[in-house]
């Protein structure tokens, strides 16, 4: 693997510091990493974790949307200390799993992928399922999987072991958003208290409409199952000079909350950050969070980040490279 160009990639932020709202490794404390400008970890590419051509389940030659979760203290007899969920996007898609004992890899493909397919009778039959986000639900002691299929609908499934899932329900669809909405997908859910809204969870997702410019939208829930959605975008593409924005992830630090998301490559292909405040009332667009390297594996585009720690060291697992032609990589802070 060729080392990426621009090895001094940094995170830029005005006067704030952040870390993952959900520590995927489950170690329970924020890492004390060396800080880049603004106090953020200076994430740098380490290695590529998954490449489509090396996977047994590879129906379309592409994979997207990684989600890393720690299993320690959560899943008895887990296959590894970390479960890495991902999926092809194009039909038929399929929610997939790889497992490993270090966030730097290696990761082993689960031999019976996909865990969830595009047909799940009697619940649905769609062209594809994709964009897995798995939340450890501490109340239920379960892994809760949020995934889309079609792009108009986000569903929830639940599991005790992170492998065998039971279907729950539709949690988001275009019918729950303003008229003209065409996509409500790529959702991630986080434990985050909003007392004024009687909420303990927030959802971030990509919203599209008939203008075909994608924004970041959000909702809140008391239980992770039943949701209320803001009818106006949290981050508009026009707010940050982009054609489209997507792949959002929530970070928190020092009593405030931040949303990290990707701009499409037409707009630069970097990860951006917006401070929304602990109560989601702020809209402070802070600029570039992660500057995608021009060389491999980023090739000018990084997207859909998922964050965790291993031994107190912060990591970011992300899509690296052209959409539907890239890999899953890891960067270390």
Structure report:
The chain is mainly beta. It has a single domain (about 20-330), classed as Glycosyl hydrolase domain, family 43 (Tachylectin-2, Chain A), CATH 2.115.10.20. Helix content is about 0%, strand content about 45%. The protein is built from no helices and 23 strands. The chain is globular, with a radius of gyration of 18 Å.
In short:
With 333 residues, the protein is an all-beta fold.
Key terms:
four-stranded antiparallel sheet; 333 residues; mainly beta; Tachylectin-2, Chain A; five-stranded antiparallel sheet; 0% helix; Glyco_hydro_beta-prop_sf; 23 strands
- CATH architecture name: 5 Propeller
Shape annotation: globular
Strand percentage lies at: 35-45%
Rg value: 18 Å
Mind sketching the topology for me?
Layout: E1 19-20, E2 44-50, E3 64-70, E4 82-87, E5 96-100, E6 108-109, E7 119-120, E8 124-125, E9 130-137, E10 142-148, E11 153-159, E12 166-173, E13 181-194, E14 199-209, E15 215-221, E16 228-229, E17 245-253, E18 256-263, E19 271-275, E20 284-290, E21 302-310, E22 313-320, E23 327-332
Antiparallel strand pairs: 1-17, 2-23, 3-4, 4-5, 5-6, 7-8, 9-10, 10-11, 11-12, 13-14, 14-15, 15-16, 17-18, 18-19, 19-20, 21-22, 22-23
